[in-house]
Structures are given as C-alpha cells and as structure tokens.
Design goal:
- The protein is built from 13 helices and 6 strands.
- The protein is mainly α.
- It has a single domain, classed as Alpha/alpha barrel (Glycosyltransferase), CATH 1.50.10.
- Strand 3 and strand 4 form a beta hairpin.
- The longest helix has 22 residues.
- The radius of gyration is 19 Å and the shape is globular.
Length: 366
C-alpha cells in the first residue's frame, strides 16, 4: 500500500518525467536527476517482476529512455552526473555513485526483458568506471575515483564499495574476467579500510561516520558476497561487524535513524550523547538514510540469514514519515519532498517486497 501511494504521488507530481523534481541541494529549481530516474526505474522493474503488470515495465522502459537521452556525452561510455556544480567540480563531469545506480537499473532491466541493448549499456557503464573515471592501485587493493574530475581523486569508501558490487554483478552477466578482477580488488580495499568497531569513515580525508554512506558500503559488499562464493568466508565477519555497528549506532530499536554518529571519546561525543537525549529530532537522518537502511539490512538478512531490521525501519517510516499525499517527508518533522529521496524510498520498499517475494517463492528465478 505504501508503494502504491508513493507511485500515485509521483504520477501526479511529474507524470512521464520520472526523475524530474526538486533536490535537497537545489531546492528552488527543478531538474532531471539521473539518480532519481534510475531508482524509480529500478523500483518499477522489481514491481513488474512481482506483479507481471505491463504498466510497471512500461514505466521502467520510459525511465530508461530518459536516462539514455541525458547520458553525459562528454564521455565515450555511458555515465551520468549532477545537473549542478558539486564541490568545485563542474556539472560537465560524471560521478561514480550516480553512474553505478544507472548501471544497476539497466542491468536489472536486461534481466527481465533480455534486451541486449540494456546489457550493452550496463557493460558500457562498467567500462566507464574502469577506463574513463579511473582508479588507483595500492598494496591493499584498488580504489576507484569518485569522478575523473581531479578534486575527487581520493578514496571515498562507500562509492568504491558500490562500484565493486556493481562490477561483480556485471561479471555474472558477461563473464568478462576483468570485471571480476576489479570487483574483487576493490572489495578487498574496502575490507582493509574497515575500522575495528565495524564502521567505515566517509573517506580517507573525512573521519565522519554517517547513516547513508555506511549503508552504501554494506550494500556493495553484500553484492560481492552474493556473486563470489570464494569471498564469503572473509566477508562474513566483515558484514556481521558492519551490520551490528550500523544498527547499534545509527538506529534505535523502534527504527528511528540518526544522520551520523560519534564513536571516539571526546567533547564531541559528550555533546552528541546529550543531543540524543534532549534534541533527538535534530540528529534524525534524511529520508535517503532510511531508504538506504532498508536496502542494506535487507541484503544483510539475505547474505547472513539473519533477522531483517529493514522491516522495523519500514514500520517507522510509514507511520511517521509518509504523508497523506503518498510521498514521504524529508524528516519526521520536516514536510519537504525531494525527488531523489522519494526515489530511494520507492526503490528500497520495492527491494524489500521483492526479496520477501523470492523468499516465499524459492523456485522462482529472474
């Protein structure tokens, strides 16, 4: 019901312009956001897999058509960026995390349609990651640049993990060995950067541990876990520690999410703990964080055969964040709607339902 309400809201909001709307970082002007289009499309693919309703497949293919039209033509291969300048990087550059979401969508669309055009685009995304975005090799493994824009030539762990998971899935469909090699080396690098408490910092420049990007790291490594059985022994301990940290530090038992956490003993930690007691709402994660948590815990549950904490988060957000219109509020006490946040929630809810559908129909394969 929550998914249907959100779908109906989107149709009224932007009709056929699926990824079009306002964004948290550009709240006064509407743009088409490739990441939003890919996530709405990905959600529609999963709903089609469950219901077999052609309406959902048509919407997914419409989203794909829009993404093809707005690909960044600066590059030979398929990639996408943001419609605005980001951290001194012009909007003419593409970004790793945005492009990975686009690639995942086209790969999933290929799985249900068997249209080789979509597989070709997904493979082109993999080529962009390796050849045009670029990477650096170190003793600990490899790490991909967040963008070929020079200001982003440092390790950002969540994006590296997501790219690793994507390349693993791409290998599964193409059997091209270099995708496997790069996925494994990137996963090893991320594993080596895990903190002792199970967390990861945002990057090697920012000692910041937050909700959204912790979830991204877990998502990527769970994808690697699923595709490469020979890495599971190493990843089990890593993912168990990560999941425990994620739930213990960034969620409450009833599913309320915190935007960030402070773990090192310091005055900042004292202040943070006081805010948790007296000003909890000021620390609440954005809708994007809740969506990432749902996806990450759903994947963890599948990989490690453990309880899915995503169901707890879903109960919280439907009760406290879903508006009468069908959209989800930016935060519990902040009634703003942003198209990328809504897209993340749509994809997260569809992911949760799809995985439960597969679990209850174990003989089904897509």
């Amino acid at each position: 019901m929550a998914i249907e309400k959100l779908h109906n809201w989107r149709v009224k909001y932007n009709n056929e312009k699926i990824g079009f709307g306002y964004d948290q970082y550009e709240p006064n002007r509407e743009f088409y956001y490739p990441e939003a289009g890919a996530l709405w499309g990905n959600g529609y693919v999963k709903l089609y897999q469950i219901t077999k309703k052609e309406e959902y497949l048509n919407l997914a293919e419409n989203a794909a058509k829009q993404l093809i039209e707005i690909r960044n033509k600066k590059y030979r291969e398929f990639s996408w960026g943001l419609p605005w300048k980001w951290h001194d990087c012009p909007n003419t550059f593409s970004f790793l995390i945005t492009t990975v979401y686009g690639g995942e969508f086209f790969l999933n669309l290929y799985k249900v349609t068997k249209n080789k055009k979509y597989l070709g685009i997904a493979q082109s995304v993999g080529n962009w990651i390796i050849n045009e975005c670029g990477y650096k090799k170190e003793d600990e493994g490899i790490w991909f640049y967040y963008s070929d824009c020079e200001v982003f030539h440092y390790p950002i762990f969540n994006a590296i993990s997501k790219a690793s998971g994507y390349l693993a899935k791409l290998y599964m469909h193409t059997k091209k060995r270099h995708f496997q090699t790069m996925a494994e080396l990137a996963a090893v690098y991320v594993i080596n950067k895990q903190n002792r408490d199970g967390s990861w910092y945002y990057s090697n420049k920012s000692m910041y541990i937050d909700n959204i990007h912790t979830g991204y790291v877990i998502e990527g490594l769970c994808d690697v876990y699923e595709i490469f059985p020979h890495m599971r022994k190493k990843l089990q301990k890593v993912l168990k520690a990560a999941g425990d940290f994620y739930w213990r530090n960034l969620y409450t038992p009833e599913g309320f999410g915190f935007e960030y956490t402070v773990t090192e003993p310091s005055f900042k930690k004292i202040l943070y703990n006081l805010k948790k007691i007296f000003l909890r709402s000021s620390l609440e994660t954005r809708l994007w964080g809740y969506a990432t948590g749902i996806r990450a815990f759903t994947k963890l549950s599948k990989a490690l055969s453990i309880e899915n904490k995503g169901s707890i988060i879903i109960k919280y957000v439907i009760k406290n964040l879903q508006d009468k219109s069908g959209a989800f509020k930016y935060k519990s006490k902040d009634k703003r709607f942003y198209i990328r946040h809504e897209a993340h929630m749509f994809d997260a809810l569809a992911t949760f339902v799809y995985e439960n559908y597969l679990r209850n129909n174990k003989n089904l394969k897509f």
